[in-house]
Write a structure and sequence with these properties.
The protein has about 180 residues and is an alpha+beta fold. The chain contains 1 helix and 10 strands.
């Protein structure tokens, strides 16, 4: 008895079935990659770190100073927008004998535009929609729903540090307990 090969119709059907399964598996794999990235993304998120802003002596009493530094979450193609900034004001030594600072995120609490400090008027002004803040960062007028965001800071030795990339959001305003 001799072995006979399957009829051409059956072998073509088998091949098409195999091809359909393979393409289906490939499509599932391609769709799973971004989904897995979404699910696992928080695991590889960079933990907040402390970024030095300068020596305590670099900050004159009651003067607001803008400090910029590279955003720890920047991408190589971010260019100038890869920089972020904070407004720092030294408030002197508090009742506990510790250095006291006000560190405000430079981004407007409305839609995030960088605000500008005007020492002549003692106000922060937002160029985008006219938001205005008082010198302590509280809201004065305009569309912002709240005052500027306070960043988490600490003094280590004689150096002022800000926590980054722990940036404020409306849900996590980072108000310093001091
Ligand atoms: S972004 Fe500042 S007022 Fe809109």
């Amino acid at each position: 008895m001799t072995m006979s090969s399957p009829p051409p119709e059956e072998s073509r059907r088998g091949f098409l079935l195999w091809l359909t399964s393979a393409l289906g598996a490939l499509a599932t794999l391609l769709l799973a990659v971004p989904f897995l990235g979404y699910l696992l993304g928080p695991l590889k998120r960079k933990a907040p770190d402390w970024h030095p802003l300068g020596k305590v002596d670099d900050f004159p009493l009651d003067q607001t100073k803008l400090l910029t530094f590279p955003n720890p979450l920047r991408q190589p193609w971010d260019g100038k927008t890869g920089m972020t900034g904070v407004y720092v004001r030294y408030k002197g030594v508090n009742k506990e004998g510790k250095h006291d600072f006000m560190v405000l995120a430079m981004n407007c609490a409305h839609l995030g535009c960088p605000v500008t400090w005007f020492p002549q008027s003692g106000l922060f002004l937002c160029p985008c929609h006219g938001g205005v803040y008082y010198e302590d960062g509280s809201r004065a007028s305009g569309p912002p729903p709240r005052g500027m965001f306070h960043c988490v800071w600490k003094v280590d030795g004689d150096t002022l540090l800000v926590e980054a990339p722990h940036f404020p959001t409306l849900q996590d305003t980072l108000t310093h307990p001091a």
